[in-house]
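Dear colleagues,

For the upcoming journal club I promised to circulate an example of a predicted protein-ligand complex. I picked one with magnesium ion because it came up in last month's discussion. The inputs are reproduced below in full, followed by the predicted structure.
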Amino acid sequence: MSRFNSVIFDVDSTLSGIEGIDWLAALRGAEIKAWSAGLTERAMEGKLPIEAVYVERMHAVKPTMAEIEQLGRVYVERIAPGARETLSELRSRGVQLVMVSGGLREAILPLARELGVDEQRVHAVSVFFDEEGNYAGFDEQSLLTRQDGKRMTVRDMGLKGPILAVGDGMTDCEIRPVVDSFAAFIGFMRREPVVQRADFVIENFDQLRELILE
Ligand SMILES: [Mg+2]
């Protein structure tokens, strides 16, 4: 028996122990890294709407295709302990797995492959390159660059309920009205405003497996 038929996962600081945009910013030096990390933290705590920082961060970082590929490898290297095993078991029990991220889709796809999440079930923000692999912008129309974007995206997905959403940030909390339960994942980051709004607080993927399957 599974308590949930669909599980929606955040990526950064949930399935993998990095914040992708901050990792990219670090390539541009310590100052840009600190600036980006500060914006990310304030956005994830709900002190700043994500749309206020998205364009600015991307314009400061301008990741190349090679850097996005490198980031894709880091997402896999820093995969959350137990995530592989838990997602594999959920899949074998017929639970629909979905990734919903404000991060960059092309960097997240290798992690999705590693975890057996169908490419069509990966919702994130696309980044574009020119023929030489230089940065050529990102999908500024994506709902996922907006504060309520995860909620709007999940609402229209038509997933089979009951649905659980799992994540560490305020943009994950925003999903709660359109799913059955929200679990705050604190394995990498514990954010009080997120914990306070959660139905469950989860420290690791073994706990998550128990919550879903038992
Ligand atoms: Mg996150």
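Two points we might discuss: The domain at 6-213 is CATH 3.40.50.1000 (Rossmann fold). Residues 10, 12-14, 167-169 surround magnesium ion (CB under 6 Å).

See you all on Thursday,
B. R.
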